TrEMBL record:
Location of the Bacterial sugar transferase domain: 274-457
Top-level taxonomic group: Bacteria
Keyword terms, alphabetized: Membrane, Transferase, Transmembrane, Transmembrane helix
A cellular-component GO term for this protein: membrane
Organism, scientific name: Pontibacter ummariensis
Transmembrane annotation, as ranges: 12-30, 42-61, 81-101, 107-127, 279-301
Compartment list: Membrane
The protein's name in its UniProt record: Putative colanic acid biosysnthesis UDP-glucose lipid carrier transferase
Length: 464
C-alpha cells in the first residue's frame, strides 16, 4: 500500500486535528451543561491539553484509529476505536491521581468523556460515508489494466475489485493466448502488442504485468513506454506455487526478499518498543503492587501448608531455551510437578485455588520479565513434557517459541486456558499464539492486558 502512503499520512494529520477540535468542543459543551458557561477555568484548560495529549499518544499506538477507508473492516475500526478509548481512560485516570487533580468535577469529566467519545465516533462514521461517496465517483478512479490472464492476474483482479475503496477502475486484460474457460476471458481487450495504443486512447494510469518475468525484452519495452507516457508500470510475480498465504516482501539494500510468515517482532524497532514496555510495566507492578500483596499471599500460603512461598520450575522459552519460571506455590509439595493441573486436583490448596482463579500466582513472573526470560504478553510457557509431546502432534507447535513467552497471552484471554487433556484444545492455543505473533502491535498487547485484568476481576472457570 506504499502507493497510498501519502493519502494515509494526510488522513492521519487531518483526523488528529479534527479529533483535537472535537475534544475542545466537548470541553466547552460539557462546561456549558455543568456550569452554564463556555468559559473554562485555568485548571480545565490545563486538563484539556493533557486530555488531547494523551489521546494523541494512545491513538499513535494503532494506525487504524486514523483510518476511515473501507479497506479496513467496520468491526476492526469499532474495536480499535473502543480499545483506544479504554486505554485513554485508564491513562487519564492515572494522570489525575499522579498529578493530584482530584479537585476537578467528576460530573464534568463524565460529560466531557461521553461527549468526546460520541463526537469522535460519529465523525468517523460520517467520514466513512463521505469517503465511500468519493471513491465511488468518477473523479477518484485510477484506470488500470492487467497484462496476462494467469492465476496471478485472477488473484490481482479479485483483490482490486473487492477492495475498490481507493478509487481504482478496471479497464481490461491483455494476453496473447487465453483459454475460453478462463474467468478473465470476457475481459480480454487484445494481445500484448495492442496494449500501448489502448493505454494512450483510454488514459490508462497503471499497468500490472503478471506474465512470467522470463521475457526481459518485453518487460524493458513496456517499462520504457510507461516512463515516456506517465503510466505506472508494476510487476506482479506469481508465487502461488511457492507460498499459499500472505507474505512480506522487503528489500535488503537492493536485493528483494520474501518472508513467508508475517511476524512484526522480526523488526528491531518493534522488539525494542515491546521490551521497553515490558520493563516499565513490570517495574510498576513490582514497585507498587508486589510489596502490598507479597506479605498477605506469603502468610496465607504458609498458614495452610508447609513448604516454600515460591515455586520454581524449568520452562522452555524463546527458541526452546530453558529458564527458571517463578510462581507463588499453589500446591502441596509433591514430586509430580511435570503433571498438568486438572479440575479438582487434590494437590491444589485452598489458597492456591484462589490464586489460580485470580491469576495472582503469576505475579512473581514479573521478575522473569525484568530478567528478559519472559514478556508481559506472549504465548504462555508450557511444561517441558508438553513441548516434547505436542511438538510431535501439532505441526505449528514449535512456531510459538519464535517469540518470548508471556505472563498472559492471546489464547488465554480468548477462552483457551486451563487443562488441555484433548488435543484440539492445545491446537486452538497454538492457533491463537501464532495469530498473536503474526498480528502483534502495542495496542494488541494493551487489549490483552485489559482483558486479563477483567478476567481476574470476574474470575475464570477454566483457571484451576
Amino acid at each position: 500500500m506504499s502507493k497510498f502512503r501519502h493519502y494515509y499520512s494526510f488522513n492521519r494529520v487531518f483526523l488528529l486535528i479534527l479529533d483535537v477540535t472535537l475534544i475542545a468542543f466537548a470541553f466547552k459543551l460539557s462546561n456549558l451543561i455543568r456550569y452554564g458557561s463556555l468559559e473554562m477555568g485555568y485548571e480545565y484548560n490545563v486538563f484539556f491539553v493533557l486530555f488531547a495529549l494523551v489521546w494523541w499518544i494512545v491513538s499513535g499506538f494503532d494506525d487504524y484509529v486514523f483510518r476511515v477507508d473501507r479497506l479496513l473492516p467496520c468491526d476492526k475500526r469499532v474495536s480499535d476505536l473502543l480499545s483506544a478509548f479504554v486505554l485513554h481512560a485508564f491513562i487519564l485516570a492515572s494522570c489525575i491521581v499522579i498529578f493530584n487533580l482530584e479537585e476537578l468535577s467528576r460530573l464534568l469529566l463524565l460529560y466531557t468523556y461521553l461527549s468526546t467519545a460520541l463526537l469522535i465516533s460519529v465523525s468517523r462514521l460520517l467520514l466513512s460515508q463521505v469517503f465511500r461517496y468519493y471513491t465511488n465517483s468518477d473523479m477518484a478512479h485510477t484506470r488500470y489494466v492487467i497484462v496476462g490472464a494467469g492465476p496471478a492476474a485472477a488473484a490481482l483482479f479479485q483483490t482490486l475489485s473487492s477492495n475498490d475503496d481507493i478509487g481504482t477502475k478496471f479497464m481490461g486484460v491483455f494476453d496473447d493466448s487465453v483459454d475460453p474457460g478462463n474467468p478473465l476471458s470476457s475481459q480480454i481487450k487484445g494481445c500484448v502488442d495492442d496494449l500501448k495504443e489502448y493505454c494512450l486512447q483510454h488514459s490508462i494510469d497503471e499497468v500490472y504485468y503478471t506474465l512470467p518475468l522470463t521475457n526481459k525484452e518485453q518487460v524493458d519495452d513496456l517499462t520504457a513506454f510507461a516512463d515516456e507516457n506517465f503510466v505506472y508500470f508494476r510487476l506482479v510475480p506469481d508465487f502461488s506455487a511457492i507460498v499459499q498465504k500472505d507474505v512480506n516482501m522487503y528489500f535488503y539494500h537492493n536485493i528483494p526478499m520474501i518472508s513467508v510468515r508475517k511476524e512484526p517482532l522480526e523488526i528491531a524497532s518493534n522488539r525494542i518498543a515491546k521490551r521497553l514496555f515490558d520493563v516499565a510495566f513490570s517495574l510498576a507492578v513490582i514497585l507498587f503492587i508486589f510489596p502490598v500483596l507479597l506479605p498477605i499471599i506469603a502468610l496465607a500460603i504458609r498458614l495452610e501448608s508447609k513448604g516454600p512461598i515460591f515455586f520454581k520450575q524449568l520452562r522452555p522459552g524463546k527458541k526452546n531455551k530453558l529458564f527458571v519460571c517463578y510462581k507463588f506455590r499453589t500446591m502441596r509439595v509433591n514430586t509430580q510437578t511435570e503433571l498438568q493441573a486438572t479440575k479438582n486436583d487434590p494437590r491444589i490448596t485452598k489458597v492456591g485455588a484462589f490464586l489460580r482463579k485470580t491469576s495472582m500466582d503469576e505475579l512473581p513472573q514479573f521478575f522473569n520479565v525484568l530478567l528478559g526470560d519472559m514478556s508481559v504478553v506472549g504465548p504462555r510457557p508450557n511444561l517441558i513434557s508438553q513441548l516434547d509431546h505436542y511438538s510431535k502432534l501439532i505441526s505449528k507447535y514449535k512456531m510459538r517459541h519464535f517469540v518470548t513467552p508471556g505472563i498472559t497471552g492471546y489464547a488465554q484471554v480468548s477462552g483457551f486456558r486451563g487443562e488441555t487433556k484433548e488435543l484440539h484444545l492445545m491446537e486452538k492455543r497454538v492457533e491463537y499464539d501464532v495469530r498473536y505473533m503474526e498480528n502483534w502491535s502495542l495496542m494488541m498487547d494493551m487489549k490483552i492486558i485489559f482483558l486479563t485484568v477483567w478476567n481476574m476481576i470476574k474470575g475464570e472457570k477454566n483457571a484451576y
